[in-house]
Specification:
Blueprint lengths: L51 H9 L4 H13 L3 E5 L5 H12 L5 E4 L6 H5 E3 L1 H12 L15 E3 L1 H5 L8 E5 L8 H11 L1 E3 L1 H4 L8 E4 L5 E4 L3 E3 L5 E6 L7 H4 L3 E5 L4 H12 L1 H20 L4 H12 L6 H11 L8
Parallel strand pairs: 1-10, 1-11, 2-5, 5-10
Antiparallel strand pairs: 3-4, 6-9, 7-8
Helix pairs in contact: 1-3, 10-11, 11-12
């Protein structure tokens, strides 16, 4: 971790930002009294297998002291973390780094578009598939799929899966919420406040048929009891935004917001060293300095610098004139002014 000031780790931190896995979730205190989470008997502790890609992202991710503070505040307060900043500053990567370091299993990823609705994140119901199967049964045809249980036609989305009752919180990445329809942030408010939702198709059934196993967004299966999904440990929610729009005040105040600034010289050097090694950093210092100048002139991402260093390592910079042309292509600004 770079730019953290004091090397001593504060005692209230669960996430340290050093990329070293450790089991700190047992030290997570009870939620504050105004957060109606962790009701009833705690579920059995279930340790999910990590995602291999998260391990590498967690090892190389470089984070500053301010962001580590906010991550831990979000964990303790059970609040979503809203990350803003330029593209390529590591907003999405943070979710994978936290999941890796705290052993919270694979990240549940919910990419948002202009057509995304709250229902997309909670669950999907294949009504046409169920009707088709019912028609086949009425025609006396064997579908080979058992009894036609409604649970086979339900699949929890990333948000719905994150809200399943678990002792350990899941990590949910809601990516680029600023691209959503104007109503989605407000639609999320109740779910974020209460940590639960109903599966309407199950509530229409007789009480004895409302508890069914359903598929989950991570390829597993879970029991939905009495048509309700209610979390025990509130998930660690990372929401990213490229600041293409403002969010409603009611939504914004329920999140902890942090603006990730483009990396300065020390953090940028640490990122290069973490990805490519100290030897590569020494060779690439002129490129790093040139990139810092380019970063001051507009929006460029760190992976553009890493790409340039990688090409230079294999000899793409042998012809200085051609190399400068290639750099202009590699470091093309991600956004332009008005």
């Amino acid at each position: 971790m770079t730019e953290t000031g004091s090397p001593q780790t504060p005692g209230w931190w669960l996430y340290r930002g050093d990329g070293v896995p450790h089991d700190a979730i047992d030290r997570l205190p009870d939620p504050p009294g105004w957060r109606p989470i962790q009701q009833g008997t705690p579920p059995k502790d279930e340790v999910l297998a990590p995602e291999p890609a998260d391990a590498r992202r967690g090892r190389v991710f470089q984070v500053d002291r301010g962001l580590v503070d906010v991550v831990n505040a979000a964990l303790l307060l059970r609040r979503p973390l809203l990350l803003t900043g330029r593209p390529g500053t590591g907003k999405s990567t943070l979710a994978h780094a936290v999941a890796h370091e705290l052993g919270l299993g694979p990240v549940l990823h919910w990419p948002v578009t202009s057509r995304t609705t709250l229902r997309d994140g909670l669950y999907a119901y294949d009504a046409i598939g169920r009707l088709h199967e019912a028609n086949l049964r009425r025609a006396g045809l064997d579908t080979g799929e058992g009894t036609g249980d409604i649970g086979r036609f339900l699949r929890l989305g990333p948000l719905g899966t994150a809200l399943l009752p678990r002792r350990r919180p899941r990590v949910l990445l809601i990516d680029e919420l600023d691209k959503s329809d104007i109503d989605l942030p407000n639609d999320l408010l109740t779910v974020f406040e209460e940590g639960r939702f109903s599966v309407e198709e199950l509530l229409r059934l007789p009480p004895e048929q409302r508890s069914v196993p359903v598929r989950t967004a991570d390829g597993g299966q879970a029991l939905v009891a009495d048509g309700q999904v209610s979390c025990w440990a509130f998930p660690f929610v990372v929401i990213t935004s490229n600041e293409e729009r403002e969010f409603p005040a009611a939504f914004a105040r329920r999140c902890l917001r942090y603006d990730i600034e483009p990396p300065g010289p020390e953090r940028l050097a640490a990122i290069v060293a973490a990805h490519l090694g100290e030897e590569a950093l020494e060779q690439a210092r002129p490129l790093v300095e040139a990139f810092l100048v380019e970063q001051g002139n507009g929006s460029v991402a760190v992976d553009q610098l890493l790409s340039a260093i990688q090409l230079a390592r294999v000899g793409a910079d042998e012809d200085p004139e051609q190399w400068q042309d290639l750099l202009r292509t590699l470091w093309r600004h991600l956004e332009t002014g008005p």
